[in-house]
């Protein structure tokens, strides 16, 4: 059944390719949407049969493939991948819905979108390291083409930069996987959390560093982030939505699944450094966002900052913080998608994203009042205002990480405050004041008439906003799927914490208190979600 | 040899072209197909709304005299449940706008009426009316004795209610007549529109402005005919000054910081009136046009609705469009008023009179330099 998630979009691809005659944009949209709606139906079926109390893979599928290489077609679904698969299909639908109907090369465009969806689903489902790598690489090519063909003026540069960075990321990840399996004397690349148990710590750390850099490029984390703002600025709005909402999550998913999941000892050894890296990334992303005058770049840098929270939470790897990684991935996916979508609407309507000229877009008669309201809601969610998904995820991150890394957590909280700063700058500049889309001049000018935004364009933003609020008010609707999986990821950490003597040199003075605090959380967490809520 | 800069021609005003237009019986607004349609159409709906405003202002002045809690002042004496429900549902004319205009006139003053309201004659008449009104109201009589300035100020306000009501009565009929003349093809161009309004203003110029209130069967003349107050100079001109030019800074949506000296301490230098209003942030300057725009929206002639529908956002931003058209029409009314107020005939050949006319218009043009005059030319 899991294969359906990969195959259905590919069936859509096939239909698009063999569709006779000229393929109209509307037809292509319908075919692609039907494919993704079908994947959502499959996901709903899977969710209805999903056992919340099982921490390991469910609905496993195994098909031997190239056995001498240890490559098998092994798929599995757990609480970590299920929410990400849903958001993959959901944002894929949003991307299809908001695609410009006047687009050129319709057939290729929708084929690429569906291939991305299929590849990302494959990566989230893969329970074999090589299979993951194949899907991970497979998604790069269509994304490269989507930026290079339908992007902005500097699309060639941005697409190539993206390709070079992420290809390098792929090489590092492949190297780490090969090293992990070969050094552990295994012949199979199947996912096994005990794979590295026998390896010396130094080897584990080396492998983890390669994985961290590899996935760090994808996330992206400072200083491997420079491809992202360029890619976002040049990419069209649907591609930006996918990039921020889904594709970056492959990086954080990889870190948690393979870094924390396969190399827990090394993870623990590096955890304080990872937390510090998270702080640098959060603060850098936030401060860089403050300096931006392009709305889209500001949102792109905010992504860099917000993905840093995932690393902090993963570094702390307490029961609460690991749930927080999933929650933050989903909430950031929704919020970033909403923000990119709205920036796209502003750009389409006004022809600019320049914060030095945009003013007063909240004007009720001639501006974009609905878009403005949604934008304010989106930035409030991003800044962690209670009542929205961003608050829950940030609260979980900070609550889960504070006792392990208090200093780093406090610095990340500063980053959260900075989110409010740069997004208020954005809202204040672009949405308040007298309506303007060009610099003021002395010459008299006719009052601006902006085209109005139709409900068709408003609908996806409204849908995302509803989800953001729904998960903000009922976080257990999302967290319940991941609880047990994340607890399993936490197990090595618990063992490690109890065995203080082994890594006494790394254990900080704060950790005894952390043990005392986290231990009672775990049992409380298992039966109920109450612990997540203040 | 010393080269000196040529002396600046003192006669050349930066807005000289507009002065010449006014002297040549043209308008401050260019004559174009759309301008005609907008100006006449909007004045038609303005006429309908002014009719309602005027009736209500006069009703309040006559029947709500010193009613300290005038809960039903907008009902013109007909309070029924359906009317109350409509009022609360806000399916009604925004009479508040008329009151804003009245208060703006009261605040800025000007003209002989303002002088008369400060005279002893008026105070005596006022005291007589107040005494009659409070005959059976002992607490109020005590309060009046303690604060003798309060009730006369209320009466002055009621005088302005009545005066503005009388002014708008004339203007309402004038604008409806203009629309009829346009429909019949008698008035076509913008200069003809201006000439029509000017003729109407001049015809009513000497109409007396009076106000009397009946208390217990006795009529108390508060503005007697003997005060010699007339329509044009004592109400129309202060109205134009207060509403078109000066306006009020605090009733708009743009916030001004008085402590930061963003508002002139000299009321004479206020520029918040209708000719300066920014239609984009609705109510950005002057009396919030929003209420008036909402009211006019209901009475637009079909051709103007179709015109608005066909451009930009259609009727979604109709209040902005109404405000733009209204501003254009107010430049026409201003043109007519200035031409009507010229000290000498516009076509005089006497150089002294010509210079006086020019100087008169140059003074007004100085004030219009920062108005939306340049935008309505586009």
Over the alpha carbons, how many angstroms does the gyration radius of chain A reach?
Answer: 23 Å
Could you tell me which chain pair has the largest interface and how many residues each side has? A-B, 15 and 19 residues
Q: In DSSP terms, counting alpha (H) and pi (I) runs of 4 or more, how many helices of chain B?
A: 15
Helix content of chain B: 55-70%
Oligomer: heterodimer
> Rg of chain B to the nearest angstrom?
22 Å
At a glance:
The complex is a heterodimer of chains A (534) and B (378). Chain A is mainly α and 534 residues long.
Could you describe the 3D structure shown?
- The complex is a heterodimer of chains A (534) and B (378).
- Chain A is built from 20 helices and two strands.
- With 534 residues, chain A is mostly helical.
- Chain A has a two-stranded antiparallel ribbon with strand order 1-2.
- In chain A, α2 (25-49) packs antiparallel against α3 (81-98) and α3 runs antiparallel to α10.
- The radius of gyration of chain A is 23 Å and the shape is globular.
- Chain B has one domain (16-70, 93-373).
- Chain B has a two-stranded antiparallel sheet with strand order 1-2.
- In chain B, β1 and β2 (218-223) form a beta hairpin.
- In chain B, α2 packs antiparallel against α8 (150-183) and α8 (150-183) crosses α10.
- Classes of the chains: A mainly alpha (534), B mainly alpha (378).
- The A-B interface holds A 360, 363-366, 434-435, 444-449, 451-452 and B 254, 278-282, 284, 311-313, 316-317, 319-320, 324, 374-375, 377-378.
Please tag this protein with its features.
heterodimer; A: about 525 residues; mainly alpha; two-stranded antiparallel sheet; about 5% strand; disordered C terminus; B: about 375 residues; two-stranded antiparallel ribbon; 15 helices; about 60% helix; globular
């Amino acid at each position: 059944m899991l294969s359906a998630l990969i195959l259905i979009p590919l069936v859509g691809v096939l239909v698009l390719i063999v569709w006779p005659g000229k393929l109209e944009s509307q037809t292509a949209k319908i075919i692609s949407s039907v494919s993704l709606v079908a994947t959502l139906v499959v996901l709903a079926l899977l969710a209805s049969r999903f056992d919340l109390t099982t921490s390991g893979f469910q609905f496993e599928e195994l098909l031997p493939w190239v056995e001498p290489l240890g490559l098998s077609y092994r798929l599995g679904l757990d609480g970590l991948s299920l929410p990400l698969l849903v958001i993959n299909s959901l944002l894929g639908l949003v991307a299809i819905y908001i695609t410009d109907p006047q687009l050129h090369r319709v057939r290729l465009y929708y084929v690429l979108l569906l291939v991305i969806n299929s590849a990302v689903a494959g990566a989230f489902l893969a329970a074999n390291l090589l299979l993951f790598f194949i899907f991970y690489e497979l998604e790069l090519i269509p994304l490269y083409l989507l930026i290079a063909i339908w992007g902005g003026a500097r699309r060639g540069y941005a697409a190539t930069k993206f390709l070079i960075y992420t290809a390098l990321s792929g090489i590092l990840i492949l190297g780490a996987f090969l090293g992990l399996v070969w050094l552990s004397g295994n012949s199979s690349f199947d996912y096994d959390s005990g794979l590295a148990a026998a390896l010396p710590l130094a080897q584990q750390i080396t492998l983890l560093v390669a994985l961290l850099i590899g996935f760090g490029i994808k996330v992206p984390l400072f200083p491997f982030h420079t491809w992202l703002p360029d890619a976002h600025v040049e990419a069209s709005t649907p591609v930006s939505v996918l990039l921020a909402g889904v594709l970056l999550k492959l990086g954080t998913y990889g870190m948690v699944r393979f870094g924390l999941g396969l190399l827990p000892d090394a993870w623990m050894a590096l955890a304080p450094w990872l937390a510090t890296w998270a702080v640098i990334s959060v603060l850098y992303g936030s401060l860089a966002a403050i300096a931006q005058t392009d709305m889209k770049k500001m949102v792109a840098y905010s992504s860099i900052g917000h993905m840093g929270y995932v690393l902090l939470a993963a570094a702390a790897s307490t029961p609460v913080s690991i749930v927080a990684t999933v929650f933050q991935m989903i909430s950031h996916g929704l919020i970033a998608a909403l923000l990119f979508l709205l920036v796209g609407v502003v750009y389409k309507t006004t022809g600019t994203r320049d914060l030095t000229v945009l003013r007063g877009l909240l004007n009720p008669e001639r501006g974009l009042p609905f878009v403005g309201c949604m934008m304010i809601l989106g930035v409030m969610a991003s800044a962690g205002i209670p009542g929205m998904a961003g608050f829950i995820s940030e609260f979980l991150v900070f609550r889960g990480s504070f006792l392990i890394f208090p200093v780093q957590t406090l610095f990340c909280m500063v980053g959260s405050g900075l989110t409010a700063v740069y997004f208020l700058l954005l809202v204040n500049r672009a949405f308040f004041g007298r309506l303007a889309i060009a610099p003021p001049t002395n010459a008299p000018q006719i009052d601006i008439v902006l085209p109005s935004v139709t409900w068709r364009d408003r609908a996806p933003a409204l849908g995302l906003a509803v989800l953001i609020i729904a998960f903000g008010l009922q976080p257990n609707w999302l967290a319940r799927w991941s609880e047990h999986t994340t607890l399993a990821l936490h197990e090595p950490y618990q063992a490690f914490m109890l065995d203080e003597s082994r890594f006494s040199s790394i254990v900080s003075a704060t950790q005894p208190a952390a043990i005392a605090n986290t231990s009672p959380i775990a049992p409380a967490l298992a039966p109920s979600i109450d612990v997540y809520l203040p | 040899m010393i080269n000196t800069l040529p002396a600046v021609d003192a006669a050349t005003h930066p807005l000289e072209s507009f002065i010449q237009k006014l002297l040549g019986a043209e308008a401050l607004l260019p004559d174009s197909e759309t301008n005609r349609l907008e100006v006449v159409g909007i004045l038609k709906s303005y006429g309908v709304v002014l009719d309602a405003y005027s009736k209500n202002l006069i009703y309040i002045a006559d029947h709500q005299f010193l009613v300290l809690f005038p809960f039903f002042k907008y009902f013109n004496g007909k309070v029924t449940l359906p009317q109350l429900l409509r009022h609360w549902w806000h399916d009604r004319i925004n009479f508040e706008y008329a009151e804003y205009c009245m208060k703006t006139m009261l605040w800025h003053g000007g003209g002989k009426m303002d002088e008369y309201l400060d005279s002893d004659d008026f105070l005596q008449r006022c005291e007589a009316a107040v005494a009659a009104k409070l005959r059976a109201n002992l607490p109020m009589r005590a309060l009046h004795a303690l604060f003798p300035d309060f009730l006369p100020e209320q009466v002055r306000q009621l005088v302005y209610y009545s005066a503005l009501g009388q002014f708008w009565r004339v203007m309402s009929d004038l604008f409806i007549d203009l629309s009829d003349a346009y429909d019949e093809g008698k008035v076509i161009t913008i200069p003809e529109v201006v000439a029509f309004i000017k003729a109407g203003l001049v015809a009513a110029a000497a109409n007396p402005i009076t106000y009397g209130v009946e208390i217990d069967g006795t009529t108390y003349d508060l503005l007697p005919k003997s005060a010699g107050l007339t329509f044009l100079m004592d109400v129309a001109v202060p109205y134009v000054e207060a509403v078109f030019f000066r306006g009020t800074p605090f009733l708009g949506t743009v916030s001004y910081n008085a402590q930061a000296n963003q508002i002139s301490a000299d009321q004479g230098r206020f520029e918040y009136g209708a000719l300066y209003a920014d239609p984009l942030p609705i109510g950005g300057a002057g009396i919030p046009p929003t209420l008036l725009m909402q009211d006019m929206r209901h009475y637009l002639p079909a051709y103007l609705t179709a015109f608005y529908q066909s451009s930009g956002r259609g009727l979604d931003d109709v209040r902005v469009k109404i405000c733009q058209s209204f501003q254009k029409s107010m430049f026409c009314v201003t043109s007519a008023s200035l031409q009507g107020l010229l000290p000498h005939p516009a076509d005089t050949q006497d150089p002294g009179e010509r210079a006086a006319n020019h100087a008169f218009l140059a003074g007004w043009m100085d004030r219009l330099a920062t108005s939306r005059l340049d935008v309505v030319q586009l």
